[in-house]
Specification:
The complex is a heterodimer. By secondary structure, chain A is of the alpha/beta class. Chain A contains 18 helices and 7 strands. Chain A has 3 domains: 90 residues, Orthogonal Bundle (Fumarate Reductase Iron-sulfur Protein, Chain B, domain 2), CATH 1.10.1060; 123 residues, 3-Layer(aba) Sandwich (Rossmann fold); 119 residues, Rossmann fold, CATH 3.40.50. Chain B has a 6-stranded antiparallel sheet with strand order 3-4-5-11-10-7. A 3-stranded antiparallel sheet of chain B has the order 6-8-9. In chain B, strands 1-2 form a two-stranded antiparallel sheet. Chain B is globular, with a radius of gyration of 14 Å. Classes of the chains: A alpha/beta, B alpha+beta.
């Protein structure tokens, strides 16, 4: 068992690279909310430097401080010294657990193993869609299935409308989130997903969840997958939908899709086809502010998570005056919908959900 | 009254979905019981539907969430949604802090107050039911 925080060459370099300039403060969603130095990257790098130099003991307080991060990477892309604080933080979380400072996600790991999803839902959702062989396999993930069901139903309906030959599988959690919160991916669940995908004979895996996308593409547990992995926006970007809205539409870049995966253009290509009146928020693309749901924060500090989402939503409304906010991430969607105040009339959808609704509206008009 | 370690004030009507109702003038005020709020954990969101929504006793009409738990809110009586507790919009945690007071959730203009007969008021009945719930779902 590890008895201390591990400071390998890469981590030492990142921590000592931090010049304490504080640029990360301007872009940190938690610092924006709390104004407490320990909640942002600079504060955590100072903390870890003190631990590394033996000036500060490792305590429960240190463990808790490390949990207060959405791993949004805004600090990383804005760091003039080239440090990657969120990677350092995730690695330190693992060390803390190894040292005996387990956190609430230990329980989540047990739940994921037992029920195959992060919420402990006992019944697997049946989307009523084909499960068998097809050119494409669709994976929707836990948040979409158990928290944003309507959005997923619309996405499935859209793919059917577009006559995409796809199958679904008996999904279990990709379980990649465990790696971000101090634990390890659930290898047996990953193997189960790989087996199910391979049984379909599909060449391409499409997912509606940016986080699952990253796990399937990057994590060694999925290296035997044998399927091309695409986020749904990458799949749909070249299609022509033949319908538009005249409403003012804006887009929020999910951190897992944008900064982490580099997918910025594909969602916009789709939106520009359907929404001529598209306006960007001021903080957009690699500078988009986080919705607050990532890095385990929705589980560890749920009130902070929703307040951050409220701040981001208010920012978007103020900067764009949009009637419709689009994103393509079930976690962002869910957090925004939880955060939205009654007086805020902006409608919030995933892109695919919105396109599905446009089709339904058109069909209703044609029938009438 | 304290039942199995949980507060269940007298004078309220309790349903088996873990919500309470109280007649106040022409409306029935409803909220979540002490057992339910403790089992839910720190509540972060309650869906607040528009006033005027038609409700049916025992049918769910909105959602409630803590960090990782999602639950349904069931109407204690049939009628029309007269008011929502707007304080919950920014401070859903009031339900945990004062589930029978400031953490009330909705006010319903009832169709028929006879429906209250379908709810529990007798301490012994509530105790038997709660013990069964604890046996099935656990304790906090």
């Amino acid at each position: 068992m590890t008895t201390q925080l591990q400071f390998d060459e890469k981590r030492r370099k990142a921590i000592t690279q931090c010049s304490r300039c504080g640029f990360c403060r301007a872009v940190c969603p938690i610092f924006d909310l709390t104004k407490r130095p320990i909640t942002n990257a600079r504060g955590k790098m100072i903390l870890l430097k003190e631990v590394m130099e033996g000036k500060l003991p490792v305590t429960e307080g240190v463990a808790q401080a490390l949990l207060r991060c959405t791993t949004c990477m805004n600090c990383t892309v804005n760091c003039p010294s080239g440090a990657d604080p969120q990677e350092v933080i995730k690695a330190a979380r693992k060390d803390m657990v190894a040292m005996g400072f387990s956190n609430l996600f230990e329980k989540m790991g047990e739940v994921v193993e037992k029920y195959g999803n992060i919420y402990g839902e006992q019944e697997r959702h049946d989307w009523g869609h084909k499960k068998g062989s097809a050119r494409y396999a669709l994976f929707v993930g836990c948040v979409g299935t158990y928290r944003e069901e309507e959005s997923v139903e619309e996405s499935i309906r859209l793919l059917d409308l577009l006559k995409v030959d796809f199958t679904m599988i008996d999904e279990v959690c990709c379980s990649g989130v465990m790696e971000d919160v101090g634990y390890k991916i659930k290898g047996e669940l990953a193997r189960q997903n790989v087996r199910e995908f391979q049984k379909t004979g599909a060449k391409t895996l499409i997912t509606t969840c940016p986080y699952c996308y990253r796990v399937f593409k990057e994590h060694p547990s999925y290296k035997e997958l044998g399927l091309e992995v695409k986020h749904i926006t990458q799949f749909l970007k070249d299609l022509d939908f033949g319908l538009t809205t005249d409403k003012k539409v804006t887009y929020h870049d999910p951190c897992d899709l944008g900064r982490h995966a580099g997918i910025y253009d594909e969602p916009r290509e789709i939106i520009r086809k359907i929404a001529p009146n598209f306006v960007e928020p001021r903080r957009t693309r690699e500078n988009a502010m986080c919705c607050g749901s990532g890095g385990g924060l929705r589980g560890s500090y749920p009130e902070d998570s929703i307040e951050i989402s409220r701040n981001r939503l208010s920012q978007i409304i103020e900067e764009t005056g949009a009637e419709i906010l689009l994103t393509e991430c079930p976690s962002c969607l869910h957090n925004f919908k939880n955060a939205r105040l009654r007086k805020q009339k902006i409608e919030i959808y995933n892109i695919t959900e919105f396109i599905g609704q446009l089709y339904q509206e058109r069909n209703k008009k044609e029938v009438a | 009254m304290n039942i199995e370690g949980y507060e269940f004030p007298e004078g309220l009507y309790y349903d088996k979905n873990h919500f309470w109702g109280r007649v106040e003038g022409e409306v029935v005020v409803m909220g979540m019981t002490d057992y339910a709020q403790k089992m839910a954990g720190s509540i972060v969101y309650v869906g607040l539907p528009p006033e005027g929504k038609k409700l049916v006793q025992g049918k769910n009409f909105t959602k409630i969430e803590s960090g990782k738990w999602l639950g349904k809110v069931f109407a204690v009586v049939s009628g029309e949604l007269a008011a929502v507790n707007e304080e919950l919009e920014k401070k859903a945690k009031l339900i945990n802090e004062e589930c029978y007071g400031k953490g009330w959730m909705f006010k319903i203009k009832p169709e028929n107050l006879d429906e209250l007969k379908n709810l529990m008021t007798d301490p012994e009945t509530i105790r038997k039911w709660l013990k069964a719930e604890i046996a099935e779902h656990g304790n906090k």
